[in-house]
Every structure is written in C-alpha cells, then in structure tokens.
Amino acid sequence: MTTRPISEKAKTMPRNAIREIMELAGGRKDIIHLEVGEPDFSTPDHIVEAAYQALKEGWTKYVPGAGIPALREQIARRASGRAGRAVEADRVVVTVGAVGALYTAILMLCDAGDEVLIPDPCWPNYASIPHIVGATPVRYSQLASRRFLPNLDEVEAKVTAKTKAIMINTPGNPTGVVFPGETMRGLVDVARRHDLYLISDEVYEDFVYEGEHVSASSFGLDEQVFVVSGVSKSYAMTGWRLGYLICPPGMSDLATALQDPTVASAAAATQKAAEAALASSQDCVAEAAAIFRRRRDVLLQVLGNTGLMLAEPDGAFYALVGIGDRHPDSTTFAKALIAERKVATVPGLTFGPSCDKAVRVAFTIDDEVLRQGLEILRDYVEGG
Ligand code: PLP
Q1: CA-CA distance, 36 to 25, in Å (whole number)?
Q2: How far is CA 182 from the centre of its chain?
Q3: Are 140 and 158 within 8 A, CB to CB?
Q4: Where are the alpha helices (DSSP H) in the chain?
Q5: For 162-221, how does the pLDDT look when each residue is reduced to its tens digit (9 = 90+)?
Q6: Beta pairing partners, 320
Q7: Could you tell me what percentage of the chain is helix, strand and coil, using 3-state DSSP and rounding each to the nearest 5?
Q8: Ligand 1 geometric centre to CA of 317 (Å)
C-alpha cells in the first residue's frame, strides 16, 4: 500500500452526524424512524411504467448532457409557472438529483478562496459542496426566534469582496420555513446590490401548508439567479436521482460542460420517468401534499402546546424540536433516544452550530407511528 496521502479536501471534508445515526438506526424494524428525509410512499405507477416503456423502447444509451429536449421543455414549462413569465428551455440543465444542480452551480461560480453564504441551519451539503471546490462556506443565521427567516441586514453584513454567491432554501430543510415574498425579494435585492449570484434551492416547492411558495425567479434578476429543484420529493423519486438547474441566460452550456467529466448526464430512463411525471396529471403531487399536511397536523397535536417545537413548519416535511437540559448536545441526545426509547432523529448539529440543542424530525412515516414516535420524543425530553 502506498504511503502517499489522500487529498486534503477528502481528509477535511465535513462529516455529519446523520451518518452515525444511520449506522445505529438504519434499516432497523424495531425503531421508529423520524430521521428519514424522503416520502415513504412509492413512485406513482404511471411514472414507473413510463420508465419501463422507455427502457423497452431503447432509452438505454447516452443522451445529451443538458438533458433530453422533451424533458427540458417540461421543466421550462414548470419553471415558467413559478417565475410568472417564460423561462426558456435552453436555460435548463438536467442534473443528477438536486444535489447535482447545487454542485454544478458552485463548481461554475467558485474558485479556491471564494466565499459562499449559507444558512445556519441548512442541509449539510451546503457546507460540503463549497468545501469540495476549495471555497469557504460562511454562515448567516436563520434563528428560531425569527421563525427561521433570514435577517437581511445580517446577510448583507456578511458579504465581503470574496463572496460569490448566496445559497438559500425555501421551503426549508431542516426548519420547514417558507420565505414570504418580501423576504425573497429582499434576498434578490441583496444579490443585486452586491453583484452576487443567488442559488435558490426550491426542491420542496410543492409542500407548503401556510402561505405560498415564491420562487427567486419571480423578481426579474435572471442574470444572477440560479434555481435548483427536481422530482425527488414531489413525486417520491429520491432514488431515481433527477434534478435540474435553471441557469442565467447564456450559462447553461458551461454548466453542461462541467457535468461532462463528473456525471456526463442524468440516466436516460430516469429522464423519461421525470418527463412523464411532469407531463401527466399532477394529482399525485396534490395527494402527497395532503398526506404531509395531515401528518403535520399530527405533529402540531403532539408538540403544539409543549413549547418544544422551535417553530411550526409551514412547508417541507421537517421540524426542529428542542432537546431540553438533560443532555449536553444533540448527538448525545439522539444516540440516547435510539438506545433507550428506540426512536431515531437527526442531531441538530448536523445542520449548523446554532442547532445543537435540537433534533430534526421528519413527518414522512405513517400517521399513527409518527404520533407514537413524537409522543415518545416529547415524554423523553420532558423527563418522562
Ligand atoms: N436540497 C435540499 C434542501 C434537500 O433537503 C435535499 C435532500 O434531502 C436535496 C437538495 C437533494 O435532493 P436530491 O435527492 O434531488 O438530490
């Protein structure tokens, strides 16, 4: 075996506590799983069938790097609806999951030493992706006391000469926050004033229970705004690995070229499945949203009056729950909760330093099991 070291980037890659929890809880049937961030139902039949047909028809070969034209058209139609005006299909790049879109955008914008503003708390890959390209993630806070909305003055104060982009996420993981239009407009204005790119992750756009989803694309700053979304959450397609990036005009060719040495393209049959998902009836999305709304009601019933929930989630399918005083930190708490009560949650620290006194729960499981898991969590925190 060689003694030559692995890369510095690999060595210093931020690790997150989800992995530890998955090792303890993953796949165990004796545990109530409040940690899993994906819909529990299967991809709707008509989408699976479309992929099956596509494979039989020969969609088994290389496809264009930016995506199959018919899918790009469907995505552009969806994005136009969100933007409130036409989004051209040539701005769409189909990616391997929404995570692929985030990676491609950062790869395109950042050199080593650049800074990227990311929320605290946020999905952990917001920190890992800049790290991979040698850029520095700089956190702005989304405090529970502000219902997890960003403070625009603080965001602006974090901008330096090295800042390239601001990453935002609404509806939000892990908070369930939904940015109102004025917050979104304010963020777009910060990007405009400071000549920055705004990368807006809207992958939970179909799951909103209070207020409405307002896309960053609706404020006319196309040259500086990237929109990230996909089919993973809306159509229960997490395993298909299909997302997309809406690029500023003129930037999609470069995004496509950057995908070439990493993934080349998303898989052909997966793209055909996504095309079917977007082109056919959207009833399955409405049904999924209704299920999550119902489960959110369960969450509010169990935790609503306890003061334990840091804020009521208005969207996505997550909430942050305080862990009380008996445990020193969220990782110790989450491990103890599995060991002593057989309920799995994600330590808040995974999402940012501000959340080490909370865990994330996902309302992605059967209503009654969810109720049971939340009651156990509540009683455990309250010392029962
Ligand atoms: N963005 C956020 C905020 C997420 O929570 C996730 C997955 O949990 C993703 C992106 C990744 O989505 P995909 O599975 O399409 O890569």
Answers
A1: 10
A2: 21
A3: yes
A4: 8-12, 17-25, 45-56, 69-83, 97-109, 125-132, 152-157, 181-193, 252-259, 268-279, 283-303, 330-341, 367-381
A5: 999 999 999 999 999 999 999 999 999 999 999 999 999 999 999 999 999 999 999 999
A6: 360
A7: 45, 15, 40
A8: 12
Say how many Å lie between the CA of residue 234 and the centre of ligand 1: 11
Q: How far, in Å, are 135, 214, 317 from residue 257 at the CA level?
A: 20, 30, 34
In this structure, the strands spanning 115-120 and 92-95 are unpaired
Helix or strand holding residue 62 (H, E): none
CA of 98 to the centre of ligand 1 (A): 6
Evaluate: CB of 186 within 6 angstroms of ligand 1. no
| C-alpha to C-alpha distances, 176 to 142, 337, 360, nearest whole angstrom | 12, 23, 10
* Digit-coded pLDDT (tens) for 17-55: 777 788 889 888 899 999 988 889 999 999 999 999 999
